[in-house]
Amino acid sequence: MSSEENREIVRRFWGVWEGNIGLVDELVAPDYINHSPGMPGQPEGPEGIKAVVSMFRAGMPDLGVVIEDVIAGGDKVVMRYRIQGTHKGELFGVPPTGRWVSIESITVERVSGGKIREHWRVTDTLDMMQQLGAIPEHAAGS
Fold first, then answer.
1. What is the mean pLDDT of residues 89-94?
2. Of these four, 15, 36, 48, 51, which has the most CB atoms within 10 Å of its CB?
């Protein structure tokens, strides 16, 4: 498949985060490897994606994705994005705060044969936990 076709597969995949969980079965390979699990004890393979998405959607029912950049080359697609929504349910053990949360991440997906096969992610976890109120924000000038 071309880089552009792989790019489109990864773009479509983000519909999972906005509630179309069935896209996991369509777009993710059964032997999918997540090199950056999103939560402790996360199941492997496509079921792990479903578990993380379900956790986030329970914690942020109005969750949306803002895609900032998509770069494709060969079998890899790199995406810079934000997952955002209102913290209305427990998330990572943090009770609902009602706060607006915007979580920035960059992912690399390896696509082959029309399926996402591998995933790497870097997320600003400190900022996310500060927004959730689990970690105090550092005072300016300290």
1. 93
2. 48
